[in-house]
Amino acid sequence: MRRFKVKINDEIFEVEVEEVGREVRAARPVVAPPPAQPVQVAAPAPKAPVAAPAPAAPKPATPSPAPAAGAQGDGDAVRAPIPGVVSAIKVSAGNQVKRGQVLLILEAMKMQNEILAPFDGTVTSVPVSQGASVQTGDVLVTLSR
């Protein structure tokens, strides 16, 4: 179960999602409060992608559903949950990280998605660089327990 804070039209919504295989479904529906004044919409709004997981502290939308961990080499790979561009790298090889710590920021559809550490460990490698385009499943960071 992962929590995300999503900002839509200057309102922040907290969303919990559960990753099941490749499908992501809402665990708890969030209903937006009715607008104080009628709003005219020119076109339907696009669906928001699911972002990176967020720790207990409020975070921007992270349809960063969360990084998937998978065995690779001498550690577990934190993979890109969605296609995007690496806008910031917050760790480097050798750093100790705690579960929920931000590893990097992945920009997708003009949203900054925080990619978080799935467990406590040590950064083994960071095979991506700032500005790199990544696809779903690409290795972003490798961690060892």
Give the secondary structure arrangement, pairings included.
Layout (H helix, E strand, L loop, with lengths): L1 E7 L2 E10 L2 E6 L39 E5 L2 E5 L4 E6 L6 E2 L4 E7 L2 E6 L4 E5 L7 E2 L4 E6 L1
Antiparallel strand pairs: 1-2, 2-3, 4-5, 5-12, 6-8, 6-11, 7-10, 8-9, 10-12
Description:
The chain has 145 residues and is mostly beta strands. The protein has strands spanning 2-8, 11-20, 23-28, 68-72, 75-79, 84-89, 96-97, 102-108, 111-116, 121-125, 133-134, 139-144. The strands form three sheets. The chain has a five-stranded antiparallel beta sheet, with no helix packed on it. Strand 8 and strand 9 (111-116) form a beta hairpin. The two termini are 21 Å apart. The model is unreliable at 58-73 (pLDDT under 50).
